[in-house]
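Dear U.,

For the methods section draft, I wanted the exact inputs and outputs in one place so we can describe them consistently. I've listed the two proteins in the order they'll appear in the manuscript figures. Please don't edit the token lines directly; just add comments below if something needs changing.

First protein:
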Amino acid sequence: MSFYYTREPGSEGEIITDEGDAPGVLLSDLLGRDPLPRRAAIELVAALADVLTIAQEDGAVHGDIKPGTVRVDERGAVSVEGFGVERPGGRAPEGRPVGTATDVYGLGVVMHAVLSAKPMGAIPRERDAHDDAIVEKLLEIDWGELAGRRWFDEVLHFLCSMLAFDPDERPQPLDVANVLAQVAPHASDDDLASWAGRVARGGGGRRPAAPTPEENLGGPETLSTPLAEGAAGMFKKRQAASAKGQATAFWSRDKIDAMLADEDDAEFIRQRQQKRGRRERFEPASTRDALGMTTAPPEMPAFPDATVGAQPATAPK
């Protein structure tokens, strides 16, 4: 029996796991109806990254994430279906599922699909040719106002790393969720909920009922496999790690704030920190220099090792 994860809309970031078909409309069908606004597209990929973070905790690997395995409902809930299905291969260059890193590559494939006006097409399997092709594909995307930001090259470098040839060079899904969730509000067009309300209204798929109070809603520490304790129709409901403010050692919230900081964004970040219950004083220039974030952070995967924008990504001295 296959199962799915759904990232519910809203700041609480609840993740539902259930068996069978996910609610909503296939993303592959929606892409032909209405181009995604940049903010909606980035929020969608961030939601998928939240899903992968919980799946990673559960030890669940999908192996072939693509628009045809992603569903969106009219509320802006995002699902990945088809977990638990054995797959011999997928689009990732390793040719077979090797863990969460393979699903992060699939996340990059979806990101390109929702942001680009052109299909990705065939990507070479040889490392250098593969990496060159990925950089070229991401540079072809119309990033709109985001491309004018001082930090855009660093973010683009990070997005390229999701599609790195080597699985070890791809970021953790929690890092993707945190970075993209904080990049999305910088795009001023429609958000995911607004876009989904237009294009997915009345779309196929059932919506799971809320759990009853008697159900066990324990965290991932009580769940060895996603549906280990439940029969068909019983599901788990948890909060996404990024919604709880969790971060990896490489990509703390402070580090992401520093990367996105410039004079125009200082007030925006202050307001976001206040919403997170943060009280520290934000100092864009000094924080940015202290964390070595004037270029791509040294912990960032080394792909690509050249220029993805106007300036080379050199490590700070």
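Second protein (the one for the lower panel):
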Amino acid sequence: MGKKADLVLFNANIVTFDPAKPRAGLVAVKDGKIIRVGRSEEKDAFEGRKINCNGKTLVPGFNDAHCHILALASSLQAVDCSPPSVSSIADIKARIRERAQATSEGEWVRAVGYDEFRLDERRYPTRYDLDEAAPSNPVKLMHRSRHACVLNSMALSMIGIKNDTPEPPGGMIDRSLDTGEPNGILYEMSDYIDSKIPPLPPEELDNGVTLANDEYLSRGITSLQDATASNDLGSWNVLRRMREKGHLVPRVSMMLGLRHLDELMERDFSPRHGDHDMRLGALKVMLSEVRGVLHPSSEELEECLAKAHRHGYQVAIHAVEESTVAAAVAALERVLGHASKNNHRHRIEHCSVCPDSLLDRLEDIRVLIVTQPLFIYHSGERYLATVTEEQQPLLYRISSFLKSGLKPSAGSDNPVAPLDPLLSMHAAVNRRTEDGNVFFPRERVLPAMALEMHTRAPAYATFDEGVKGSISAGKLADFTLLSDDPMKVSPEQIKDIKVEATIVGGKVVWRS
């Protein structure tokens, strides 16, 4: 009698990321965990379901280190105004008009994804454009970056934004220079707006999460790190219910807003609360600079980081511009100057502009970087056109992050950028924009490192390297089966590799 297994994958080209056994041909699974990694010839030693992989490549399941699950669910129910679906403001108006005509008067119309850089007019839509499309419905149109949005006149009125409305902390209301009247364009105000408009109806949310789940699994993603700063215990309960209903299969590490720290401690949400299926991740804080004013202030940032660190919580700081990255580094330096630097694994999300001086300081305090290689591909042309020549070489310095020991992980920031780990790997390896231009090639990385950034490194970023991120006995049986080996095809072909199957806990949850 052979040894019992629930699943045996054999005749595979297995990339394990286990230094003791870097490559293998067989993996056997029992009760959701790996019980054997070995040679294909061992398959007859096991009883159970067997799958011949026909020489295809098996890697640890892809782990998206920075995404927004409920935002994707919502966007999949909204009007798609992203390129290439639209190419002009006229197209946007036509799409919103069509949805408004199918929506009862007074009900909200949500639209997402516009990118003024890719519009014929090369400008943001305004309230007046949206008024023409939907005069009888409030409209919220979200920018592709999710850091700006446009409201029509009815929406502004319902939310209470008028000529004399002051900006909320960290936000900005764009106004006419002549009259001071809001033109509908709002920056860094989505949380404020969402708190004042009705949430998606439960049935729409369920449907949106189901659609999102299909997207994740078809891309080979077995773990998600939700990095939404507005997440609270209500968001936690929503995702937990979605997992219990089977609407969301990938494992979730969910960040909650750092401002909820006191409530978390009162509710006994200790650091890394939860289990392998759903766990509390880092506490997230958005660090932004609007009109030269840092929000939160340096003093507020340091105070909340120190409290989280003191109680053993990991923190993740959203910092994009050089000034905000510098402020994040300075605050962490002060906090860690009075406490242990060992294994805190505090994170900076994006770290988009990072000169050598900041790299050195990041290395000294042992911070992790979560970066977005896909931005090079999808936004590279914008960077070349709008970012100063002095700062362009400082953008998304993936190779430099690796050399500095910052253990960079890759996240999509979806729905800001598409879900596509293989295209993200392609971007990290080739540093090409969507139009084919090379973007500072000295920051390229080798395919093996790009793959590690999407598997092993994200597991380390959530303290999960003991259970995921590599293929070895005792770990969770989460795998992605690929049509080709990213380390053996030409670098330009990485983006053409297909996901053949996605396996979570030893169960095949998606096949091509």
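Candidate sentences for the figure legend, describing the second protein: The longest strand covers residues 278-286. The first helix runs from residue 69 to 75.

Thanks,
Y.
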